[in-house]
Amino acid sequence: MSDGQEKAVRSRTALQIGFLILPIIVSIVITALIILAVGSDPGEVFEAVLQGAFRNSTAFAGVINFWIPLALCSMGLVVTFTAGLWNIGIEGQMMFGALFASWAAQSLTLPPPALVGVEILLAMLGGALWGALVGVLKTRLGVHEIFGGVALNALANVAAIYLISGPWQPPEGGSAQATAPFPRDALLPPLSGEFPVNLFVLILVFIAITLVILALRGTRWGLHLKATGKNARSALLLGVPTTQSAISALIVCGAIAGIAGAYRVLFTYSSLRPFVSGGIGFLGLLVVLLVANRGLWAPFVAFAFAIILAGSTRLRVALQLDQSLAGVLQGILVLLVLTANGLRQRLMERRQSGTSPEPQSGFKPITTPGTEAINE
Amino acid sequence: MTPELINILNSIVSNATPLVIAGLGETITERAGVTNLSLDGSLALSAMLGFVAALASGSILVGLLVAMVAGGLVALIVAVSGIALRQDQVAIGFVLTLLCADLAQFLGQDYTGRSSTAMLVVPVPFLSEIPVLGPILFRQQAIVYFSYVLIFVVWFWLFHTRRGLPLRAVGERPEAAFARGTRVNNLRYVYTVIGGALVGLAGAAYSLGVKPGWSNPPVMRGDGWIALAIVIFGGWHPFRVVLGAYLFAALRALSSAIQRSPDIDIPLVLLNGLPWLLMIATLLLVSSGAVERLLHVLPRPLQKWTRTFLRSDPPAALGTRFEPD
Q1: Minimal C-alpha gap between B263 and chain A (Å)
Q2: Burial of B202 (C-beta count, 10 Å sphere; 0-12/13-18/19+)
Q3: Coil, strand, or helix at residue B123?
């Protein structure tokens, strides 16, 4: 390697690292300015968030309890993004999983370990059904998955509110807040009082991460999804069953999201609540956008987001601030990473003056035929 | 016509106004080939900022302007990221949807539950005296009258001015427009920002007009998606988009009338699902497959009419990039 080449490589690496760190710093600065705008002290706020996440083992368990559903959703979304699908319906898939799990928790009487297993399986079924519906609307009936997903999210929430305020209302009287707590045997048990996390679902998360990565890399199905996502029309001409691929991706994502929904009702809340998904599915979309659909990175970014999310729950108590600040920071970060990525590509093209193609590293934007035009 | 029915129709027109303005804004943007998916967030953010600005300055006009600037800026982010930085417009739009909604909630936290300074209802002289139509259409807030004018301005601009042709061309066939000397990306910037400013105005039409005040969750949550669906239902034609907005507001009024009626026993919460079922139904109706199937069933004379009325084809270059070199 000549001196010049080496220099070019070094400066390109520097550029990449710069464009990785810069968005993080800038997003923190902008968030600090926003905090100043509402008349609070950014230092106090960031301290409260860190306190909220790390002050003791129970607080850290809170981080894990956000990470579990978020990592699950992110892995599910890696599947659908690979197939070129914008699965905004993931919130609804989570909620439907939660509904199915809640039904089982209230209606079935089985020995505890079996009951929990059945609840999780039913939650997967519920999420898969709601995902399949998005897929059928998209592939058979021409309703774009973004709109189908948004509508099905709202409908799943309406179903939950109906059940809470009607058939499943607590015996002491109807409120739209929550069902009565589920029986103890139906709930996922915590590891310990100091570290309340459920080990069984935690293990399921690692299994899901492994399975998704392996399935996408090494199976025929994964290959079909990639082909469908890259160019659905050519894939179809080459004999890839694109319709089945798309629907199966949504079913798999829905099933994984269903586990996330089950965790929220069977552990986090011990009851069914309205909007039980709490925006975690949407946050999963941000995670996957941030890592440009690389499954191996998703759990790590999900962990960082879980820290922010769990930490921000303390804002209300400590500083009387709205916890939507977490979403502000996360949104600005993803927006800056995406735009910085575009900026970096422009800069590198200018340097190379179009002689060699863009190297396939750093943050790659997700552009697939399925995502380019949202109206078909 | 009973005064009661006239009142209902009057409120349908005013409730539809934000959807009309946002739908027209998004129509302009998408006609130029750019998708601004951020509506559900940018409506909330501009509504909140407009409301706070009007409250602080004591002037509704300042509030409207601030809301328009906010909507325009959000759209500018979509345009710069999508055009200059070549990012996926849907991705940027979705991130902005979440970000703007959270930003509105965070920045507006001290203003939740407050309401004041709404626009006054100003009857139009003479026109408001027309029987039936007068009290329905011309006893409204100024922003409603503005929306009437906007409908015709957008339609006229798109189809009957010298500048409307290049606007449609950059959304349909940017290469051809470029060959004729149109600066494609410049036009896309301009119309994306104009469309976004109208979305901002629509936000203020809630917080300063038809649903005055700011609340958490905001009253317009979900309406951004509805507006985006209405643009598809409207086939990217201003008149049809507006028709969609009024129909939607009418059906919403109907469902709240059902809620009030003692004879019909539907659990109240289930009616909240109606708009979303309706959204799926309308998108099913205009998706090409469904229309073709419908055409086969219809008698021949009705076929052509149905096709022109129901077919909804997006601008051919919607959401794609154009590189001049």
Answers
A1: 19
A2: buried
A3: strand
Q: What tokens appear for B162 in the block?
A: 């010298």
Do the chains contact at B270 and A162, CB–CB below 8 Å? Answer: yes
From B137's Cα to the closest Cα of chain A, the distance in A is 31
State in Å, rounded, how far the first CA of chain A is from the last one.
49
Query: How far apart, in Å, are the Cα atoms of B129 and each of A24, B123, B139?
Result: 61, 9, 9
Specify whether the CB–CB gap between A120 and A250 falls below 8 A.
no
Inter-residue contact A32 to A329 (CB < 8 Å): no
Residue B44: phi and psi, rounded to 5, are -65, -45
Residues on chain A touching B107 (C-beta within 8 angstroms): 34, 37-38
Cα Rg for chain B, rounded, in angstroms?
20
Per-residue pLDDT of chain B (325 residues; tens, 9 = 90+): 788 889 999 999 999 999 999 999 999 999 999 999 999 999 999 999 999 999 999 899 999 999 999 999 999 999 999 999 999 999 999 999 999 999 999 999 999 888 776 778 888 888 888 888 998 999 999 999 999 999 999 999 999 999 999 999 999 999 999 999 889 999 999 999 999 999 999 999 999 998 888 998 888 899 999 999 999 989 899 999 999 999 999 988 888 887 777 776 677 778 888 889 989 988 888 876 667 777 778 777 777 777 777 777 888 889 888 887 6
* Residues in B touching A85 (Cβ below 8 Å): none
Tokens (6 digits) for B177: 């427009």
CB contact under 8 A, A162 and B320: no
pTM of the model: 0.91
Joined tokens for residue A178: 């929550």
- CA B83, A302, A334 angle in degrees (round to 5)? 20
Tell me phi and psi for residue A87, to 5 degrees.
Answer: -85, 70
Query: What single-letter DSSP state applies at residue A15?
Result: H
Upstream peptide bond of B217 is cis (omega within 30 degrees of 0): yes
Rg, chain A, Cα only: 22
**Could you tell me if residue A142 is left (phi over 0), alpha (psi between -120 and 50 degrees) or otherwise beta?**
left
SS3 B141: strand
Nearest CA-CA partner of A305 in A142, A132, A28, A66: A66
Concatenated DSSP letters for A139-202?
HTT---HHHHHHHHHHHHHHHHHHHHHTTT--TT---SS-PPPPPGGGSPPPS-SSS---HHHH
Task: Please name the residues in contact with A140: beta carbons below 8 A apart, sequence gap of 6 or more.
Answer: A243
